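Need residues for this backbone.
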């Protein structure tokens, strides 16, 4: 879940209270709140090795996913891919990739 517009804190101050709400911090300095970091970790790992996020999460939970969970896993995978692609392009543009 987005915490700030554009997902990047405008300040690096340790006093910024939004830092405490951060559950996920990307290498591109984007921050998000996340209620299911262990599940998100499985989604990211599945994407990285070309496996199905849905099947990976179901195996992690040791049960079939509900229709709503399938929708949420798919949406999360889409967001992960969007951010990965965006940060990959940024790395190329700014000479870090």
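Answer:
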């Amino acid at each position: 879940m987005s915490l700030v517009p554009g997902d990047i804190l405008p300040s690096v101050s340790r006093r910024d209270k939004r830092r405490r709400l951060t559950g996920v911090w990307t290498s591109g300095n984007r921050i998000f709140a996340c209620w299911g970091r262990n599940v998100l970790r499985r989604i990211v790992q599945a994407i990285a090795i070309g496996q199905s996020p849905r099947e990976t999460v179901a195996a992690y939970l040791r049960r079939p996913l509900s229709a709503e969970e399938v929708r949420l896993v798919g949406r999360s995978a889409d967001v992960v891919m969007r951010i990965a692609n965006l940060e990959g392009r940024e790395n190329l543009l700014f000479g870090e990739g």
